[in-house]
Amino acid sequence: MHRIFLTSLLVSLLFISSTSAHANDTAQSTPLVPTEKMAHLENDSILPPMRPWSGASESLLLSANQPWVTPFEQQGYISSPNYHDTMEWLDKLVDSSDMLQKVSIGKSPQGRDIWMIVASQDGGSTATALIDNGKATVLVQAGIHSGEIDGKDAGMMLLRDISHGNKRGLLKNVNLLFIPIFSVDAHERSSQFSRVNQRGPVNMGWRTTAKNLNLNRDYAKADALEMQHLIRAITIWQPDLYIDIHVTDGIDYQYDVTFGYNVEQGHSPSIFAWLESIYRPAVEQALTEQGHIPGSLVFANDNTDMSKGLSLWNPSPRFSNGYGDARHLPTILIENHSLKPYKQRVLGTYVMLEQTLKTVAKNSTKLKTAINKDKYRNPSKLTISWQKETLAQGRDFKGMDYRIEQSPISGDKVVRWTEAPKLYRNLPVIANTQPVITVTRPVAYYIPPQWAEVINRLSLHGIRMTRLNKPTSISAQQYQFSKPIFSSADYEGHQTVSAQTTLHKITTHLPAGSVRIPTDQPLGDLAMLLLEPQAEDSLFYWGFFNTIFTRTEYIEDYAVEPLAAKMLSDNPALKAEFDQALKDPDFAQDSKARLRWFYERSPYYDKEYMKYPVLRASK
Length: 619
Known about the structure:
3 domains; single chain
C-alpha cells in the first residue's frame, strides 16, 4: 500500500473517533469507520496529500444507532446511497413529517422519476400553495453531474433535522424545494472509477446523462429530457433563489466550499448586489464559524503557474448560473473542492444550505425587490458577447504550495501539490467582462411557424409570445449571413455555427401561425440571448437554423451564359459593376465565381439563402 494512503487512513480514523466531542444533544458518539470501507477509496494513493480536518460542523452528524441516521452517516461518511435507497429513505421521512411532500417533476429517458421534496411549514404540496403563502422559495438541486453528489447527502441530513430535530423554525419564513438527484440515470451508472480526481464517495455516478449529454451545458438549448423537466419546474414553482451543487476539477487549494454567481457587469446587477452584499457575508461567516474555509468561485489561469493569476467567470446561459443571470433568477453555483474528504464536503454543504434558508428568510423583501428590478429593467442595449480583461483589483488566494517536476510519463512538466498551505497575495484577476458585441433592443421578434422547434424551446423557457391568426405584413430588420464557420465535430449533439452578419431593413409578409415575442417582458433578456445570432448561446449558434445554409436550387452553366449576356445588355449599371469586379485578378480568373456572380443577381436565385428567419421589429 502507498504511504499516502496509509496516512490518509490513519488521519481519517483519528478524526472520526473524535467527532463525539462535537456531538449535539440529539446525537450519540460516532462509531469508528471500518477499515475495510476506507480501503474502497481506490484513487486515494494517486491524489495529492489529504490535509487533516476537523470542524464544529461535525456536531451535525448522527451515530449509526440513531433512528433517522442517513445512509451517508450510517456507512462511515464515505458512501452515498443509490437511487432506490435514497428514495426509500426519503419516502419514510416524508411519510413521517407534516412539513414534507414528494412530487415528480418528470421521468428520465430510462423511466426514473426525478423527485423533488417540497418542504414548507404548512405542508403545501403544490406550486400554488407555496406562492400563496407569500414566503420566498429556495430551490436546491444536487446531482446535475451525478458523481458530484455532496448536495444529496447534505440535503437529506438537513430535511431530517427540520422534520425531527431542532430546526423546524428554518421554514417559518421560507419554503424549500430539494431535488436530491437531478441526473438520475447517470447516478445509477455508478462505480469506484467514475471520477478519479475526486476524494469520495466510494461509488460515484457518471458526469453525463444516459444520452451522453452534459446537463450543465444544456440550460439554453434544453435538449435533454431531464433539463426540460427542470425548466418547466422553475417556471411553475417560481423559486426566488436557485442553488446548483457541484464538485470542482482543477488545482489544489485550502478552500473546501467555493461558490459563485453572475457578475456585476451581467444581466442582473441588482441580484448581484444582493448576493454580494447580503448573501455572501452571511454564508461565509456561517461556514467559517463551523470550521470550513469558504471562497469565491475562481479558477487558475494556468494550473502550473499560480503567478499568472485567477480567472473570474462570467458564464453564458448554457450553464446554471449564466442561465439564472439571463432569466433574473438568483442562481448560486457551489463548487466543493474535490480533494477534500467527502465528510468535510457534505458538512460544508449542509452549513451553506442551512444559512441560505436563514438569510433568505430574513432578507426576502430585499431579494424580491432586486429580482423585480432586474426583470423589468429592459435596457435599451444588451451585451451578448464578452471578452477577457484584467480587473483593476487583484485578489489574495488561499492556495497550496507546489513544485514542478519533469514527467517521465508525458515528457512535460507536471504539478506536485504539497500539504503546505500558501497565501498567494494580490494575484491578478482576469475576467470575461469586457463587452464585445452589444445590440439594440427590438420591440419584438417574429418567427414564422415552420420553425416550430425553436418556438417550442422558447415556450418551454416560459417566454411569452402571441400567434398571428391571419397573414400579416410587417416592416422589420433581418440578418444576412456570410462566411459561416461550422464546428468540425459535434458538441453536445450539435454542429455549432458562427457567421458574419449584416442587418437589413425589409418589408415582408408573415403567414398565419407566426409568433410575435415582445421584449418588454420579464424574460425579454433571455429571449434576446436566445434569438440574437451572435449571442454566445443563441439557438442559431447551437445549429437550430443550420438548414438555411443548404442550397437546394441551382442553375447550369449553359443557362447562365445567355442569362448573363441579357442582364448585361439590359442593365448598364450592372455591366459597370461587373467590370469593376473583374479588376480583382482572383475573381477574373475564376470562371465559376464569375458565373455565380450573375446567378446571385438574377431573379432565379434563392432569396432566403443564408438569411435569418427571425425578424427584429421596432414597433
